[in-house]
């Protein structure tokens, strides 16, 4: 059965130049006159020798006529002598020099780390001799870099006691689980910048998630504090000497509110630290994305990686259940099999917030328009501009991929019908009808609800963030991870898989180029397959410098990984 996507994608074309080989022509010169030899008094042997010398000189002149540059060595003038040993020595030294250069070049090539570079929107990666694999990145990409943000055991901490730091800072970790994770990492970093004591962050209830979860309900607090004991002072609660705790949550005198997004480290030293020293305890609010990436010291970014990849661990029961789900995914065929994790962002809230246009009935479109008007009235206005906005966003690749689009892309990449796929998703907008094309092409598609019994999952239903943590870990452990839209979940998964060694594929579809292919009614299946493969051969989580194309969470290589 042939599939026909709808719009054409500009194919990547590589060109190479072939240098011309230089050639030289021998130069000619006039022959020299022979030396005068007396004719009288020569014996027969002398005559033979003379003829021999003339014969040699004739050959020399013939040779000289073709290779003029060597004639000085062959001249029989008494002032010039011919030394074969000097020529041999010169030639040997020349060969040794060439050999040294070749060995140095080879050594440099072998020790050059595997690193992709970006030229505009095109990513160029080193060529490898390995055949392409559906399930793994090239082995050479995994041997060049290693994680190096872990704690150094046996070191001597220079941290002052809790009561001798510059004060206490307190933050609310807002948003969903993954945004909260980023806030916690940034809070530790800011505490280090200001030499402050960090009060354990409070996980604030989110309007969308509507989940009341404490730090200790999701993360291992003891491990968190102990792992960072040589970096930052962390306490579980507000100190007893500060009696008016309500003031910390509500009083403007105890709150720093003017922190710009992606602020540099120096901003905290110049603007927040003086107030902290004066008040001794301050709340930072809001704190989402309030610390930059390329404007802070390397050791601060490395500390954020240490928090994210080593200090922040989920509770043991969450880790154990995730291991069980991953094991079940790997044994669904009766034998050991790889599995893919698909983060499908097509919930009603995401579809509405995107303001993109999607395939659907007239009733569905009218219902979505009313939903958007109610939830985002300032953006909706009168709705007259939304059609043009939707077209522009799709062209720029800012719309979530629909389930049927995901199915076609995966099949074009070469994944067979038998592929085992774990779906991390909320309630898909459109329900089973919207999911039908994806399930038809990949019937071995399951969710955590289908992998577990009701009793196994009930213990995690108390906190929505616990269910999100299970999805996070099962995706992290998968052989291939596929994202369909942006967000902190996908960003953190891709970054963690890179930090673990780049071996696991993390596919990030080029939605802008794919939208052009889907919109071309004349593109055949073979052409589409070629476009998909060429476009995504480097979009699999390969080694690439962090800045300026990535932030720390999606790609930790530059500050947090070292050459092997």
From TrEMBL:
A GO molecular function held by the record: glycosyltransferase activity
Keyword Transmembrane recorded: yes
Lipid biosynthesis in keyword set: no
Compartment(s): Membrane
Annotated pathway: Glycan metabolism
CDD domains tied to this protein: O-FucT_plant
Family: Belongs to the glycosyltransferase GT106 family.
Protein name per its UniProtKB record: O-fucosyltransferase family protein
Source organism (scientific name): Ficus carica
Lineage of source species: Eukaryota, Viridiplantae, Streptophyta, Embryophyta, Tracheophyta
